[in-house]
Write a structure and sequence with these properties.
Number of strands: 13
Mean pLDDT: 97
Bound molecules: pyridoxal-5'-phosphate
Distance between the termini: 64 Å
Order of helices and strands: HEHHHEHEHEHEHEEEHHHEEHEEEH
Radius of gyration: 21 Å
Structural class: alpha/beta
Low-confidence stretches: none
Largest sheet: 7 strands, mixed
Shape: globular
């Protein structure tokens, strides 16, 4: 008898994580700072203290305290995850039931739909308007129509690079609180360091809101796989009950707590990344409307989103020059890098497109 994979996984292919050796990597929205170069000694000391034969602290006490102190929260309102990706899988798998309706928007982070489907949610995706900005009105109309059990979106959004205003997010949360019986609101603020419309301070005040954070972007620590969920007591309690007890390894706990205590570094790195994204945007906006390029969006993140029907071709031509960006259908998402990297990708694109600067 041949073993049959179930329908939902039969045709899946692994996430296209690009691990080739490219000279310039602007595909994954990572930071261009490596804290392990700045705090080499301290990180080594933290790692040296790890007791390898013992399980890690299941409560991640120090880590949560460090995260909470950085963002002015109570450690009780925080759960750590092996990347915010793990937290999304836990929310999908355990806080929601099979067949529950998950409302997402497009364009948005592709993994939302993937995890929703894998965990047997009924995923409904509403297209954003042509300007790509997700308006509260549109979100509320979709929520009213669909009556979902959960709503999940990124803010600022990957890939559109746009932030929804805090007051609009609050408008949506208040609508849901007043009109829906049981609807979990999940706001992914992976890129909020690059903007200023966070609702992190409100997350624990509602009983149905989860805000997700990550160390993979502004904090420059994608390698250690560390994300956080901030929410009400009720939801934090449930997340603690359903996650695997040792989900955060001790090396990540030790190094993560140290990195999260580096307030000045985080502030300075973020400010420099914002300068870099402004520079990249200023460089690329001259391509808008020329030779197959559509909108070049003014970003609130650490990357630039460019609509173009030549996305695949441009992606391939950049690869030939050992520059990797992200292609998403008819668009490119280009991470802001160092000044030299931004200049290299800019020069390459103007040359390939035969546009003069
Ligand atoms: C990069 C990113 C994350 C971070 O995921 P991790 O698993 O924490 O690395 C989360 N959400 C969005 C929208 C992202 O782009």
């Amino acid at each position: 008898m041949a073993y049959q994979l179930n329908k939902k996984v039969r045709d899946l292919t692994p996430y296209d994580a690009i691990n080739g050796d490219y000279a310039i990597r602007l595909d994954a929205n990572e930071s261009f700072f490596n804290p392990n170069e700045l705090f080499t000694q301290e990180i080594a000391q933290e790692m040296a203290k790890v007791v390898f034969n013992r399980y890690p602290d299941a409560s991640c006490k120090k880590l949560r305290e460090s995260f909470a102190a950085l963002y002015g929260l109570s450690p009780e309102a925080v759960v750590a995850g092996n990347g915010s990706d793990e937290l999304i899988t836990i929310i999908m798998g355990a806080l929601l039931e099979a067949g529950d309706k998950l409302l997402t928007f497009a364009p948005d982070f592709s993994m939302y739909q993937f995890y929703g489907r894998t965990y047997e949610k009924q995923v409904v995706t509403v297209e954003k308007e042509a300007g790509l900005y997700l308006k509260a009105e549109l979100a509320i109309a979709a929520i009213e129509k669909e009556q979902p059990q959960a709503v999940l979106f990124s803010n600022p959004c990957s890939p559109t690079s746009l932030v929804m205003l805090r007051r609009e997010v609050v408008q949506i949360l208040d609508y849901v609180a007043a009109h829906l019986e049981n609807c979990l609101m999940i706001i992914d603020e992976a890129y909020m360091e690059f903007s200023d419309q966070s609702i992190l301070d409100l997350a624990a005040q509602y009983d149905n809101v989860i805000v997700l954070k990550t160390c993979s972007k502004a904090l420059g620590s994608a390698a250690i796989r560390l994300g956080f969920a901030v929410s009400s007591d009720k939801i934090i309690g449930a997340l603690n009950a359903v996650r695997s007890p040792y989900n955060i390894n001790m090396v990540t706990q030790a190094v993560g707590a140290l990195l999260l205590s580096k307030k000045e570094y985080i502030k300075e790195a973020t400010a420099k990344i914002i300068v870099a994204r402004e520079e990249l945007y200023e460089n690329l906006k001259g391509l808008a409307g020329k030779n197959g390029i559509g909108q070049v969006v003014k970003p609130d993140t650490n990357f630039v989103y460019m609509q173009t029907e030549r996305a695949r071709e441009l992606y391939d031509r950049l690869l030939e020059r050992s520059i990797i960006v992200r292609q998403l259908g008819n668009a490119l998402r280009i991470t802001a890098g160092t000044a030299a990297e931004n200049e290299a990708v800019t020069k390459a694109l103007y040359e390939i497109l035969e546009v003069s600067r």
